[in-house]
Design goal:
The strands form 7 sheets. Strands 11, 12, 13, 18 and 19 form a 5-stranded antiparallel sheet that branches. This protein has 2 domains: about 1-225, no CATH class; about 235-390, Immunoglobulin-like, CATH 2.60.40.2360. Helices cover about 20% and strands about 25% of the residues. By secondary structure, the protein is α+β, with helices and mostly antiparallel strands. It contains 14 helices and 19 strands. It has helices spanning about 1-5, 40, 45-55, 65-80, 90-95, 100-105, 115-120, 125, 170, 175-180, 195, 200-205, 235-240, 365-370, and strands spanning about 130-135, 140-145, 150, 165, 180-185, 190, 210, 220-225, 240-250, 250-260, 275-285, 290, 305, 310, 315, 325-330, 335-345, 350-360, 385-390. This is Cytochrome c-552/4 domain-containing protein. Keywords: Signal. InterPro entries: Cyt_c-552/4, Multihaem_cyt_sf.
């Protein structure tokens, strides 16, 4: 099971690069208006632009996300050992505006940090020029409009550029162009929000935020374009409902915990590199630890770990491109409630803490691949307390 923790993150930031059977890219008509830089949008939409700057959409390219870049390079190294040339299928969602996207995806070209359309990641012009979603077996793609009009769910009557209405941006279906599903060459579902999720993504991920949507608007708020998820602690703290109680037991105490997933999808969500786990610690009057549900590795209490990992070639914990099936999936389904109980054989308990810890990467994975850490203060190596409650006696 140790190897599951080490490899369960399975390089998902570059998983899309491992599917050579899928060579299509977004459909941009010949002669289509060129993409505009998102910075240009800031002149009329300053609040929304600030949101986007702080979002993972603006940081989606490997040129801005060191962890993503590190995983891509590890993948290339792995392919080289097998005598293969690695491609960059991640481009379809991580840098969808790249002018050479087809070459990136078929491996005949490599990412170039000097190209702004790669560096910008998922820019304003991409989502707001989508016409349709082209559904595929392994993943989805988009059709982009030719005239360059910016579409929205409720377009203004006047604007300094072409506008149009697209219901995809009202229903949250626009999100499913990238977040719907991804399968590898063996047909294994690496992620599948279309199966694991429900409802409208916008209800939670684009909540109302102070500030008008444009300088010409009379509104006082707008739909947030930060689109917070696993990188957002406030969002994480909305994800779960946790009930914890401490009761008398023979010779000590019983800790009863009930955790409910309040999100409209699995927790952690479909990306398998994420993990969460329950941490329970009891202290005596001198703050000395007298109980913990694990010592060093959360997998010591594997029933209280929420994660997903793959199997292939007789091994458990293989990377996505080698996956032949799912080995472990203990994530919480939407609306699922799971209960835990711990008996502490001591009558000296004075303080007890119950936490649900969320990590973007397991610590063992970062130890194995130091590039994931980025810096000494790397967010990837931090523990986020999605829930914490303290009992005092």
């Amino acid at each position: 099971m140790k190897h599951i923790i080490v490899l369960m993150m399975v390089f998902m930031a570059t998983a899309a690069a491992t599917f050579p059977a899928i060579l299509s890219a977004h459909d941009v008509p010949d002669g289509a208006a060129p993409y505009e830089k998102s910075k240009r949008c800031s002149a009329c939409h300053p609040a929304i632009y600030r949101d986007w700057e702080n979002s993972m959409h603006s940081k989606s390219s490997l040129h801005k996300d060191p962890a993503h870049k590190a995983m891509y390079e590890v993948f290339l190294s792995d392919m080289k050992k097998e005598g293969k040339e690695g491609s960059y299928h991640c481009a379809s969602c991580h840098m969808p505006m790249a002018e050479n996207i087809k070459k990136l995806m078929d491996g005949t070209d490599k990412p170039n940090e000097n190209l702004w359309r790669e560096d910008e990641g998922v820019g304003c012009a991409f989502c707001h020029r989508v016409e349709t979603i082209v559904e595929g077996k392994g993943r989805n793609m988009f059709t982009i409009n030719k005239d360059g009009a910016y579409v929205s769910s409720n377009p203004p009557e006047k604007a300094p550029h072409g506008v149009g209405a697209n219901p995809l941006l009202a229903s949250g279906e626009i999100c499913m162009g990238c977040h719907s599903h991804l399968t590898n060459q063996s047909g294994v579902a690496i992620c599948s929000m279309k199966e694991e999720g429900k409802g409208n993504c916008l209800d939670c991920h684009m909540e109302k935020k102070e500030g008008p949507p444009s300088i010409e608007s009379n509104k006082n708020d707008h739909a947030s374009h930060e689109m917070g998820g696993g990188h957002s602690l406030p969002m994480l703290r909305k994800a779960l409902s946790v009930k914890a109680s401490v009761n008398e037991a023979a010779g000590g105490k019983t800790v009863d915990i009930e955790i409910t997933n309040k999100t409209a999808h699995t927790f952690p969500s479909t990306m398998p590199m994420r993990m969460a786990y329950v941490k329970v610690v009891a202290y005596d009057a001198q703050k000395k630890t007298i109980f913990r549900n694990y010592e060093k590795n959360p997998m010591e209490d594997k029933n209280a770990v929420f994660m997903k990992s793959f199997k292939g070639g007789g091994e458990v914990g293989v990377p996505a491109w080698k996956a032949e099936g799912v080995a472990v999936d203990t994530r919480l389904k939407s609306d699922e409630t799971r209960t835990f109980s711990y008996t502490i054989q001591s009558d000296k308990i004075k303080t007890l803490t119950v936490e649900v810890i969320y990590r973007l990467f397991p610590s063992q994975a970062i130890a194995k691949y130091p590039a994931l850490k980025e810096t000494e203060d790397s967010v990837n190596d931090k523990q986020f307390a999605a829930f914490r409650k303290e009992f005092t006696y």
